[in-house]
Automatic annotation (TrEMBL):
UniProt cofactor(s): pyridoxal 5'-phosphate
CDD domains: CGS_like
EC annotation from Swiss-Prot or TrEMBL: 2.5.1.-
InterPro entries attached to this UniProt entry: Cys/Met-Metab_PyrdxlP-dep_enz (IPR000277), Cys_met_metab_PP (IPR054542), O-succ-hSer_sulfhydrylase (IPR006234), PyrdxlP-dep_Trfase (IPR015424), PyrdxlP-dep_Trfase_major (IPR015421), PyrdxlP-dep_Trfase_small (IPR015422)
Purpose of the protein: Catalyzes the formation of L-homocysteine from O-succinyl-L-homoserine (OSHS) and hydrogen sulfide.
Transcription regulation as UniProt keyword: no
Organism: Chitinophaga cymbidii
Gene Ontology, cellular component aspect: cytoplasm
Catalytic activity: O-succinyl-L-homoserine + hydrogen sulfide = L-homocysteine + succinate
Stored HAMAP family: MetZ (MF_02056)
Keyword Glycosyltransferase in annotation: no
Superkingdom: Bacteria
An example Gene Ontology biological process: 'de novo' L-methionine biosynthetic process
The name this protein goes by in its record: O-succinylhomoserine sulfhydrylase
Amino acid sequence: MKKRKNKPTYHPETQAIRIQSERTSHMEHSGPLYLTSSFCYEDSEAMRAAFADETDAFIYSRFSNPTVDEFIQRMCALEGAESGFATASGMSAVFGSFMAFLKTGDHLLSSQSIFGSTHTVITKFLPKWGIEYTYFDMTKPETIEALIKPNTKMIFVETPSNPGLDVIDLAALAKIAKKHKVILNVDNCFATPVLQKPLSLGADLVTHSATKWIDGQGRVLGGIVLGRKELVDEVYAFCRSTGPSMSPFNAWVLSRSLETLHIRMARHSESATSLAKALEGNPHLEWVKYPMLASHPQHEIAKQQMTGGGGIVCFEIKGGLERGRRFLDQLELLSLTANLGDSRSIASHPASTTHAKLSEADRLKSGITPGLIRISVGLEHFSDIIADIEQALEASK
Ligand SMILES: *Cc1c(COP(=O)(O)O)cnc(C)c1O
């Protein structure tokens, strides 16, 4: 039989499409879905060898599964990673990446501008196990090095951050992490490997919520941790026993999604850039924020480390909290939903929803102003997206 190997010299776009679990005797074209919890052995010797790690035979889908492996291999090709472990959600990826490396007495240095549930894990749960944390302001990178303590084990950052779209220089941060022998863990959810590859900039670990742009159609939850094999092995050891593994069904959906990730991110970025440019200067808005606008405070860094701005545009509507809510009520096309990174455009108002439980002072520290609106720009015709936003701005006066 003709052997078709996926050549490592192929471009990541090609690899994300062509890496596939080995063909079965049916010679299927598309990768099959191995929806099975466990795997069988011909005899007791084969079973013994599998459990003794002498073969790479599959054992149990909490450890590994061919469909999940396909997704992991595709993500490794995209991020330029040696190894990966896929999880049930983005939060289990973030949590697994913390628990694999942090123990009682250790210190985590994290950006303050992070996803809400990550903030909860860091401030409410890690301290229960005696793991300390310090937050830094990612817009003041010169303050970070002084916050590293002898027990600091990890630096965690999201860039661009959710929802504030702050950007930090990953290569510079990686230098600091290396100098102090600290693991640099980057949540690359907003950029995706299409627009930014943290490992190539010196990060040690990349974490993802695959629920967002990677799925791209708001169907399944998923997450992944990627990096050098020796590090991912630690994450695997923790997750294999504690059980946050990705379902083969979700992996199958997400692998199909990766085949269109490049063309989708190009379109999301193109429409988001057009939206940001069109809205900048709009009389209903205080400001518009998007990494590829020259007015973005870290625009130069974004241009250097990202090949596109991504699909999220933020703006501050004049009139604060109440006007923000009125704006949502006037939208006709855009969805009001908690997700982002969908083919359907979404509007959200963090101050009255995801971040409503925080005090106003804490919201401001994470960059959540009262009239902040986050738009996840979808794949609809651009004219329809902007028309809906403009009419809702007008009608919410
Ligand atoms: C959504 C999100 C997460 C959490 O992912 P889930 O799949 O919802 O668990 C983590 N980080 C960022 C930046 C996110 O946007």
